[in-house]
Design brief:
Layout lengths: L6 E12 L2 E7 L2 E3 L3 E5 L6 H8 L7 E6 L2 E2 L5 H6 L2 E4 L11 H8 L14 H19 L15 H14 L4 E5 L7 H14 L4 E5 L3 H4 L5 E6 L2 E6 L1 H5 L2 H14 L1
Parallel strand pairs: 4-9, 4-10, 7-8, 8-9
Antiparallel strand pairs: 1-2, 1-3, 1-5, 5-6, 10-11
Helix pairs in contact: 3-5, 4-5
């Protein structure tokens, strides 16, 4: 089975060790531009370690990560972020006492205006542009009615939509999402993933998720990990019919559902 073409990100023999344990064992994955790529596998398979290494929260012990054709292996996390790889977390972390709109605005990496540049109200114009941009994203995500609500008052699903909004404000090219619908009711889970599929016209997504009954219909390509390795990849049909995947993962997953 081939990896997706037209890659915005790919890894080459990516490896990570913890006290001799192979958490990643020469992993090769690719994220195609304007696609939603899913990675699944049992707990402890290496999924979170993989996205931690890609986003430089962990250093790779071997192999490489390429983004837009450039080797970004082990660059500082802020440099990875600056290049447009934005990672959301399983438990969103907005500033809870700030409003939804304030959280959106501070997510924009704005270096500020010089004194000379501020002449002629350019600073005010910039703030107005950012506010309009933020509100348009909130409207797209269908949480614009919550713009002045403090973040701690949001539901889990609404917080995850806010995290997507903050990534959009940071001009993401690739959004990495760790269990974006964990703990979210099915109706809102579908709504979150619908927003993701609409956004892929402009942005690529790399998602870790366990709720296969919901997520599979929204993704373009799937990787399966076990014991730090990629054991299968392909379409939904390929994955659901793969004997090794059924043995190490799908049987237990559907038994729990």
């Amino acid at each position: 089975m081939k990896s997706p073409g037209n890659k915005i990100l790919y890894t080459k023999n990516l490896s990570k060790f913890f006290e001799g344990l192979k958490a990643l064992d020469r992993v090769n994955i690719a994220v195609e531009k304007n696609k939603v790529i899913l990675i699944i596998g049992p707990n402890g398979s290496g999924k979170t370690t993989l996205i931690n290494v890609i986003s430089s929260f962990y250093e790779a012990d071997g192999g490489q990560v390429f983004f837009e054709g450039e080797d970004i292996t082990n660059l500082p996390p802020h440099e990875i972020y600056r290049r447009g790889i934005i990672r959301t977390f399983q438990i969103p972390h907005p500033l809870r006492k700030l409003s939804v709109m304030e959280n959106m605005l501070i997510a924009n990496d704005n270096p500020g205006e010089s004194f000379i540049g501020s002449i002629g109200h350019s600073w005010m114009e910039r703030e107005e542009e950012l506010a309009e941009k933020a509100f348009n994203f909130l409207k797209f995500l269908k949480i614009d009615h919550l713009w002045d609500t403090q973040a701690y008052k949001l539901s889990g699903g609404q917080l995850k939509l806010l995290e997507i909004g903050r990534a959009l404000m940071a001009d993401a090219k690739l959004i990495i999402m760790d269990e974006p619908i964990a703990g979210v009711n099915p109706v809102l889970a579908h709504d979150i993933l619908k927003r993701v599929t609409e956004l892929k016209e402009e942005i690529s997504f790399f998602i870790v998720e366990h709720r296969l009954d919901i997520v599979l219909k929204y993704v373009d390509y799937v990787y399966v990990m076990a014991n730090g390795r990629i054991i299968a990849q392909g379409s939904e049909k390929d994955i659901l019919s793969d004997k090794e995947v059924i043995e190490v993962y799908l049987g237990d997953t559907y038994a729990e559902a």
